[in-house]
Write a structure and sequence with these properties.
Blueprint (H helix, E strand, L loop, with lengths): L1 E2 L3 E8 L6 E8 L1 E7 L5 E7 L2 E6 L2 E5 L4 H10 L10 E5 L5 H9 L5 E5 L3 H8 L15 E4 L3 H6 L5 E6 L11 H7 L1 H10 E11 L4 H9 L3 E8 L8 E8 L2
Parallel strand pairs: 8-9, 8-11, 9-10, 11-12
Antiparallel strand pairs: 1-7, 2-3, 4-5, 5-6, 6-7, 12-14, 13-14
Helix pairs in contact: 1-2, 5-6
The structure holds S-adenosylmethionine (SAM).
S-adenosylmethionine (SAM) binds next to strand 7, helix 2 and helix 4.
């Protein structure tokens, strides 16, 4: 997370010592796609060498270099769904498809995975240049793409999902708009609770811990567990949090 410089310069000292000169290798950022979302956010898909970056208003929403905790969201959230014959799992949003890929790898062949993505261009990018990053998850026959706000799907669903995996921003603490409240406020969480089948789980990715969010989950009826994972799992990286709310 955080803003990105437009260029990264790697300096290397070239020989010989008497003629030391600074050799600068510049890795350019290449613009692959751009869109404006319904709330006016400017989103860009960039490539720098073999790294892909999605920028929202110039700030990094995510990079392909680190996706361990996005996969862990699926691992924790699908612990029960993976044992079921006819599971139905909601993934929101799509991003670069890492959570979706991990979900598909866990679930059985008869499963259905609904992907809620707010931004149509993100779906196009996943069908195009981002596809190979996570092994083309959009081509999997179990996937149903719904280009809409995940909160709209939750508010319209009753006893539908075995798991709901949410990664739409930096997590509940970073969210301030009315739209985000619809998802992580009491009413949004109550909708998530209703959308789950008994025994289902709501799994929420977050860049940080949030005790008040845990309390809100309990308030609407979830039994709560909190997992902490590194951005690159065993290889380290920043600490991220995954909230798990179990519907009795
Ligand atoms: C951080 S990325 C998700 C990363 C994803 N977990 C992965 O593994 O690549 C957040 C995504 O959520 C989408 N998004 C944001 N708000 C949303 C909403 N309310 N409903 C559906 N998608 C949303 C964004 O457009 C973006 O594609």
């Amino acid at each position: 997370m955080g803003s990105l410089p437009l260029m990264v310069a790697y300096a290397a000292l070239s020989i010989p010592a008497t003629e030391r000169r600074l050799k600068v290798v510049v890795k350019h950022l290449e613009l692959l796609g751009e869109t404006r979302t319904s709330d006016g956010t400017d989103m860009k898909l960039m490539r720098r060498s073999n790294e892909y970056i999605i920028l929202a208003n110039g700030k990094s929403l995510m990079s392909s270099r680190m996706h361990g905790s996005e996969e862990a969201l699926a691992t924790f959230g699908c612990r029960r769904a993976r044992t079921l014959d006819q599971s139905c799992v909601l993934v929101g949003g799509l991003g670069m498809g890492f959570t979706l890929r991990a979900t598909l790898d866990l679930l059985q062949r008869t499963a259905i995975v609904v992907v809620a993505e707010l931004v149509p261009a993100v779906v196009d990018w996943n069908r195009g240049p981002l596809g190979p990053l996570a092994g083309h998850p959009m081509k999997d026959k179990r996937v149903r793409v719904d280009i809409s706000d995940v909160s709209v799907i939750l508010h319209a669903s009753t006893d539908r999902f075995d798991a709901v995996l949410l990664d739409v921003d930096n997590g509940p603490a970073g969210l301030t708009t009315a739209g985000n409240d619809r998802l992580y406020g009491d009413r949004g969480l109550a909708a998530g609770f209703t959308a789950l089948k008994p025994g289902g789980v709501l799994a929420v990715w977050s860049a940080r811990e949030d005790r008040r969010f845990e309390q809100r989950l309990r308030y609407v009826g979830f039994a709560v567990e909190v997992e902490r994972v590194r951005g690159r799992l065993k290889k380290g990286g920043p600490r991220h949090t995954i909230f798990l709310g179990y519907k009795p």
